[in-house]
Amino acid sequence: MSQSDTVQRILDAAEVLFAQKGFAETSLRAITSRAGVNLAAVNYHFGSKEALIQAVFERYLTPFCQALDAKLEELEGETRSGGEVPLEKLFTVASRLALGSHGDEPRRAMIFFRLSGQAYSQPQDHLRAWLREHYGPVFRRFLALLRRAVPDVPPMELFWRVHFSLGAVIFTLSGMESLQAISKKDFNQSVTAAHITQQLLPFVVGGIRGGG
Amino acid sequence: MSQSDTVQRILDAAEVLFAQKGFAETSLRAITSRAGVNLAAVNYHFGSKEALIQAVFERYLTPFCQALDAKLEELEGETRSGGEVPLEKLFTVASRLALGSHGDEPRRAMIFFRLSGQAYSQPQDHLRAWLREHYGPVFRRFLALLRRAVPDVPPMELFWRVHFSLGAVIFTLSGMESLQAISKKDFNQSVTAAHITQQLLPFVVGGIRGGG
DNA sequence: TGGTGCCTCAAACGCTAGTTTAAAACGTCT
DNA sequence: AGACGTTTTAAACTAGCGTTTGAGGCACCA
Q1: Cross-referenced SUPFAM superfamilies, in alphabetical order (chains A, B) (predicted)?
Q2: What is the pLDDT of residues A99-136, one digit of tens each?
Q3: Does A88 touch chain B (CB under 8 A)?
Q4: CATH homologous superfamily for A53-209?
């Protein structure tokens, strides 16, 4: 078993367990047991539990943000010759990337949204600060394109509405499995990632534009 | 120190600390220390930490849900003679009640929204199930009025959009203090509860109606 | 005054957590 | 084959957790 193998197995196990039970409620013993590695391996390879949490985020977020950044640059290029990117297209691009930029099934995206939800509801802002520092620029780039897509919405209100949208996405996907049960019971219809994003798009677009 | 005094002091301390640091990260020792009572008092008066968490929710939610239920009944009465309650009015009523049904400043509402966020991102659905069981009927009553306010939105989509809205609210108010910092820096404008709900209303209304 | 419930208190219990240690195993190069 | 840096292993350590215990305090009524 090579080094990277152990590291990857730990990351895989941690990703799933953190999403399932939260950071505090997931013990290193549970992670290493699931990964089939020794308990001490986490502290050996990552240094601490906190560092492991950051590593889990980094492994997912870095490819996604690189892909998003490239795509946004492409879109900026298109609009340099006048016009702006439609609101729907911006969100479609982002969601398609979030769901499929890793080559694996969108199940991982779900797992990761759950993680994000827990990161945000976490008190200590170590993690939040770290996320903002590392991935803030892409977010601001997205926001700039957004501003040109809805020029009639004042920047201040747009800022808030983007956060509202983020909340809708993360919160919903965080509570997926319970919502899945409700939805199945009330509407006899199961829930897929594609299905949810399909529902999300009109809501977010309507919300950003504002109503009333 | 009378009994109810100790109980209330524990609830006060727990409410703040749970919101600040989460359920798992808040120890009974921290709670009793802040409350100025003995460690064993929690297990004596509430039985367990889990029961204390439920008690915190109950103390807040019961008055709110009673007030909301009464208000909804009143609205139903108005519409019995034909017509339906406008979307804006439904949400205005709900938000006003959430912010002011306790006689104290809306700061408590913020604390409570943080709690809700943590309850939802929590893995064990003991709490979620308990909340649903106790306060589900009011929610369904609200949903029924909503359905009549936007008859052109299919029930399935409305169901999702309501959850998206809930997510927007809880997520935003959960991350308040960090958003406060950003907003102050970028827009030189501080953030109040009234201000946020004012921003939320058009977003939620637009989102529920849907755009695109 | 003595007894009866309710409450408080300091101390301890059992347990699990993250982390550390030192020896053993492994792979690689001379 | 032997030495060396890296990785794995089992075991222990320290700390903090929720909970329990039994003695003590306090108000109230006979």
Answers
A1: Homeodomain-like (SSF46689), Tetracyclin repressor-like, C-terminal domain (SSF48498)
A2: 775 555 666 777 888 888 777 766 566 777 778 888 88
A3: yes
A4: Tetracycline Repressor, domain 2 (1.10.357.10)
- Kindly report the pTM of this predicted structure: 0.85
- Give CA–CA dist A171/A119, Å, rounded: 12
Question: How many other β-carbons are positioned within 10 Å of the β-carbon of residue A45?
Answer: 17
The token pair that represents A45 in the structure block: 């390879």
Q: Which two tokens stand for residue A23?
A: 């950071």
Q: How far is A69 from chain B (nearest CA, A)?
A: 22
Which pLDDT tens digit goes with each residue over A27-36? 999 999 999 9
pLDDT band at B179 (very low <50, low <70, confident <90, very high): low
Please provide the DSSP assignment of A102-164 as one string: TSS-THHHHHHHHHHHHHHH-S-THHHHHHHHHHHHHHHHHHHHHHHH-TTS-HHHHHHHHHH
**A106 vs A73, more confident:** A73
Is the Cβ pair B159, A186 closer than 8 Å? yes
Chain B nearest-CA residue for A124: B21
Choose which CATH entry (3.90.1150.10, 2.60.120.590, 3.40.50.1970, 1.10.10.60) describes domain B1-47: 1.10.10.60
- Give yes or no for residue A194 having a pLDDT over 90: no
Q: How far is the CA of A23 from the C1' of D20 (A)?
A: 29
User: B203 and A20 in contact by Cβ < 8 A?
Assistant: no
The one-letter amino acid at B196: I
